[in-house]
Predict the 3D structure of the following.
Amino acid sequence: MTHFILATAGHVDHGKSTLVRALTGTDPDRLPEEKARGITIDLGFAHLSLLSPSGQSFDVGIVDVPGHEDFVRNMIAGVGSIDLALLVVAADDGWMPQTEEHLQILEYLGVGRAIVALTKCDLGDPERVEANVREKLRGTGFENAPIIPTSLHTSSEELRSAIARELAQLQPQQDIGKPRLFVDRTFTLRGPGTVVTGTLTGGTLQRGQTVFSQPRNLPARIRSLQTHGREVDQAGPATRTALNLPELTAKETIRRGDVICLGGFEPVTRIGALLRSSPRLRQRPPLKSGAVLYLHLGTTRVSARIILPDRAKLRPGEAGPAEIRLTTPLLAFVGDRFVLRDPSERHTLAGGVVVPLGAAPLLSASDALDGWVLAEIQRQRVLRRDAILRASCFSSGEIDAALQKLEANGKIVLTNEFAFVAEAWRVARQRAVDVIAHEHETHPERAGMLLSELRAALNEFPECMIEEIVSDLCASDFVKVHRFIAKRDHRRRLPPQIEVIADEIIRGLSGNPVDPPSQRATTSQARAAIDFLIGQGEVVQLAPDVFVLGSAFAEMKQRAADFISAHGRATVSQLRRELGTSRRIAVPLLELFDKQGFTRRVGDERVLVR
Ligand SMILES: Nc1nc2c(ncn2[C@@H]2O[C@H](COP(=O)(O)OP(=O)(O)OP(=O)(O)O)[C@@H](O)[C@H]2O)c(=O)[nH]1
Ligand SMILES: [Mg+2]
């Protein structure tokens, strides 16, 4: 069973609702006012099961839209995520203003396929109107759409098979793991409570799942769900779905225009866009930069200021980038299509697609995703891989493929977790190599560069980038030793002027190795010399100014071990006497032994740790 959504379109009174009733047996006009006036005001819904010529079964959710020019807003809400349009033209009336406007809206919203139903063939001149319709479709995406003559008085069988033939050629909507239900109706049932209905796209919703109503980010659990009046455990893309969300109280908290989705998405008040104005449009008024218009996306309509960065006006037939500032937050995914209408709601001025802010206009659709991914990373310089275009109409597989391609083209650098702009990465990495080399040159006595100093030297780059660069360096010619990073071939050595001081220190400690005089390192050179000697193991530091030669330390350790094993335990003064040293040396020496886990203090005595 493959699911599709079909919506009607076309001028008022051309027979859309009559056709839906003929196809499905359901009268889509459900409001008393609609029945009274004989026109459709709001969206109507029906359901059709079809078999394709090859035996495939299709489950088709049908949305019937109003044709009257006062209700274009409702029409747009109905055709947001459909697979196939049924464009209705009455043979006695021909191509009319809303036939044209609806056609443009379908194109702006990216509807790829349509069937034209030529209705009221019992009244008009079908041949002449068909030729005219064919003419009108020339140059649009629906140029080759089948035109099927129909009438109230004849069977709808031919139309039914035309629909099945078209659907058989369609790619079913993808499950990208990001379900969104664009709410078009909410009502409250005594008992179950709030129910919302809408067209589900982009993924699957399940019973028991916690969802969020956007843009107000209200959490709710799905107690039950239905498609076409049947209770189901889950619903997938391209299904008309009803959700029972008892935690939301319908009237105040949820209404048409809201979106039900999973967690992790945030509504925005600024979006990037590429706009397109139909060449067929004789637009009055023109779309001017700075204008405040209505933006229709999904089932919602919000007021928005349109900024055109590169032109004063968008003329018919033109396309260009825009920044859109919204007066109320909107959940918009990159890749979403929308329509712009003038504030008096008389004219459809343009259509567009949501892109990352700052994305350059792209001509070829095949590069669009790569360009959008790159724009996202460029805007932030670095992004966690799992955050890139999360709010988009693309699956994580598609985004990952785009990342690999950008990496292969040298535009970005990828690590397990992050994506970086290649240029920033290259600059930062080179800076790291340079500062480490400089550190080795100016301080050859040091083990390397302190990582904290490296971070400080690169502080204009993001922390995570520095961490990844350190890992990258250490995978090649660099090593990390404790808190230092150094070139793998770095050998510590002393500059000549410090070597003289180091020699003096060694001489000072050698006179009486077990009880040498204190050493106070007052100059930075003396400190560098001592650090070096400690690093090399030539000197061991016992207390702030107390040092012994490494060899003396090893010897005293051995003698202490022998003495304690012979006696089982020993006091500080016993060991001081045994080692021939002073309390000044013995006390910190034994504390260091304790710290090294060589001895342990028991009362006033030391024992050996086994
Ligand atoms: N003679 C004739 N009348 C038709 C035919 N199809 C529809 N009608 C009539 O045309 C009128 C309008 O039909 P609807 O189906 O309500 O038209 P619609 O396109 O849904 O109108 P809106 O939803 O208001 O835009 C009704 O009175 C229908 O009975 C047809 O094939 N032949
Ligand atoms: Mg109708």
Q: What stands out?
A: The two ends are 74 Å apart (CA to CA). Residues 16-17, 40, 64 surround magnesium ion (ligand 2) (CB under 6 Å). The first strand starts at residue 2 and ends at 9.
